[in-house]
Amino acid sequence: MRPAAAAAAFLYLAAALSARGAALPPAEESPVSPRRTPVVLAVEKVRGAVVNVAAEELVRIRVPSQRAPQSLGELFFGELHPRFRKGYQVTSLGSGVIVSPDGYVLTNNHVVERGARFRVGLLDGRELIAKVVGTDASSDLAVLKLDAKERLPYVPMGRSGELLTGETVIAIGNPFGLAHTVTTGVVSALHRNFKADDRTLFDFIQTDASINPGNSGGPLLDITGRLIGVNTAILGERSAGIGFAIPIDRARRVAEDLITHGEVREGYLGMAVRDLPAKNATEDEEASGGVQVSDVDPGSPAARAGVQRGDRIESVNGYAPRSAEEFRFRVRDLDIGAAARLELTRGGKRLDLSMTAVELSPEEAVELVRRRVGLSVGEERVQGGRVVVVRQVASGSAGAEAGIEPGDWVREVNSAEVSTVSEFERAAARARRGGQLVLLVQRGYAAERIAFDFE
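Now predict its structure.
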């Protein structure tokens, strides 16, 4: 068929089909109100307050010098002059949520812990510079402050203590770099404990709302759009339908401390605990047969309330601890001035005791190091400055068992450099937050990090 004839035939067929009404009907307008469900309303209300957090890390590489080494340090460690270093940036992405109109952002500590500077992306396309206000590794929380001149959208906080198992929740975040992704699910469980990277994490909200890499630090919302959790963890390959969030009641207390004091202050009761052996447990099992008081600090709130060594702990503020580690977590989570109600068993009798958590001063922290670890420290002047030196090691103490000896130098406490007793005191007081005291101990030219439980 000739081209002209083919074109004419096509036009004839199209006209015939149109005349018979074969054309598709026009799109039908759908009413908006039935589709604007509570989930849609909540997302519309808070979506502008969910941000993407880009953390940039400056990584330096030593480039070998072509000239001969000028010193022993250069021989072993390479050329140190800045012009022989090459820097580049690695950007990691996470999520965050604006929690106040003046630009405070709540996110995870692991999102920002290695960053040198931070850029925060908003829904409207703006990118703002943020500075770190404070971080708390033990709770995996961090607070940023945006450099903004105007009021910003923010998410109002709810109360995680009011959550119901089975209620609808919404997660918004930046999974795999897909900004402002919305997923929904339910509260699968409350007060969930789980293991991650050989560490037990306590008291999380479990949800089946999809949480993937990049969601970390983003909000978990209730159906009204209130912030009830901070998304933080997934279980690797086993994570299908399982995500975890830090309850907002805890996150709010941490954030307020970081904003007000620059660090998290925790209450002190003055007691140490240990796991009782579980009945019929094998050597490979980590089961606990209960939690027992192993020591009570003189003059502490626990001592004044009547707690005694050997008491068995049945509950703390209504929670029955399944291990000494969980009890330590519950106590560390107490705010200064908060009441602690302990239910104990002593000689077959039940006791209900109440006490008030107090703040541990730096000087008291050093005394706690002496009681818990067995170390007494002092300060000496050496060539190049001052050092913290071990004065005494109690016989049979944890410090003695670790091989620490008088005369050893303590260079760091939980990765913070210390050169004076006052620096050691402040670092030891902060170490209680994580429940572990890690000392970098030097003897001669050798140095070793040694970790101790520190309640």
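The radius of gyration is 29 Å.
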